Amino acid sequence: MIMAAISLMALGARTQDASWYFMTGPHFVDYYAPDGGGYLATDNWNGDAMPKQFYVGRSLIYGLELGTSLSLLQIQDFPDELVNKNFLDWDLMLSYKPLYKKVINENHWFDPYLWIGGGLTRINEETNPLVNVGAGIDFWLNEWAAFNVHTAYDAAMGDGKAYTHHGVGVKFRIKGNKGDRGAIEPMDLSTEKKQEINDQIRFAAKNIQFETSSDVIRQESYKDLDNIVSIMKNFPNTKFDIHGHTDNTGDDAMNLDLSKRRSASVKKYFMDKGIDGSRLFPEGYGETKPIATNDTPEGRAQNRRVEIKLR
């Protein structure tokens, strides 16, 4: 199991999320439920409101998360005579989150998961290995914190007794920083790949249109903007410049202001679609960087544009 965990951590070096998770809260143990006492019947639960369960985990790839937990407790209800009431449960677990893409890219608040694992349990001065399966839900309150509920079935080996294990808690997420090896940085992309991304974005950006003399994006532009969003989400730690331009019709200062507002409007659209604003760098140049003549209607139309490219 230890070797498997090391291998998964190595795979996690290429994760798109690279987040760390920390959780603590109260938990409850039931030794009677496996023998027909009722899985969620609370009559024989051992536990109190004190936070005596602790979890640390790291996201890997494809919605997988590797974590470890430590649970401590004083047992009162036990099928046999208690020589020592101190309870310990240590687990190493591998979780799968089926909605991980929505949670990462769209700030989705409902985050269920399943896990398998194993570890050690100690009660009545006897230590036994165990295997377990479980399920839980993170209810994300914001980008960094969630309310958690979880439950598991723990099967102790040898002479150990099986039990059900339930808990609630507060979970905190610390996202991988910009230097995290798990992120796909622009420097990891080949020159050919960068060119391919820029070409795809340039093609889509040609169709970005605004209401006349306004920074309001026209609805027919949404499809192309959404295509750009998909590209950005495929390379989640890349950064993008958003440059607004106008033709030379009208006042220079007004054109400069309009180009800045239009690039900011595009940034806001991307952020509303789940793109982190720290990845986006809007700027406006007014009429100062034409790509065609301003002496013809066709040329002025080409100069009224928003350019988006890898930074």
Chain-wise SSE layout:
Blueprint (H helix, E strand, L loop, with lengths): L1 H10 L8 E6 L1 E4 L22 E7 L4 E11 L11 E11 L3 H7 L3 E14 L2 E15 L4 E12 L6 E12 L16 H15 L16 H13 L5 E6 L6 H21 L7 E5 L12 H7 L1 E6 L1
Parallel strand pairs: 10-11
Antiparallel strand pairs: 1-3, 1-9, 2-9, 3-4, 4-5, 5-6, 6-7, 7-8, 8-9, 10-12
Helix pairs in contact: 3-4
Structural account:
By secondary structure, the protein is an alpha+beta fold. Helices cover 23% and strands 35% of the residues. It has 6 helices and 12 strands. The chain has helices at 2-11, 100-106, 191-205, 222-234, 252-272, 297-303, and strands spanning 20-25, 27-30, 53-59, 64-74, 86-96, 110-123, 126-140, 145-156, 163-174, 240-245, 280-284, 305-310. The chain has an 8-stranded antiparallel beta barrel. Helix 3 runs antiparallel to helix 4 (222-234). It starts with a helix and ends with a strand. Residues 1-16 and 177-187 have low confidence and may be disordered.
Number of separate helices = 6
| SSE ordering | HEEEEEHEEEEHHEHEHE
Q: Which residues form runs of ≥5 with pLDDT under 50?
A: 1-16, 177-187
CATH fold annotation of the largest domain:
Porin
N-to-C CA distance: 42 Å
- Proportion in helices: 10-25%
Shape: rod-shaped
Largest sheet strand order: 1-3-4-5-6-7-8-9
* The number of domains: 2
**Count of DSSP strands:** 12
Task: Provide the CATH architecture of the largest domain.
Answer: Beta Barrel
Estimate the mean pLDDT confidence: 87
What summary fits the major beta sheet? Answer: 8 strands, antiparallel, barrel
Amount of beta strand: 35-45%
Text of the CATH class of the largest domain: Mainly Beta
**Classification by helices and strands:** alpha+beta
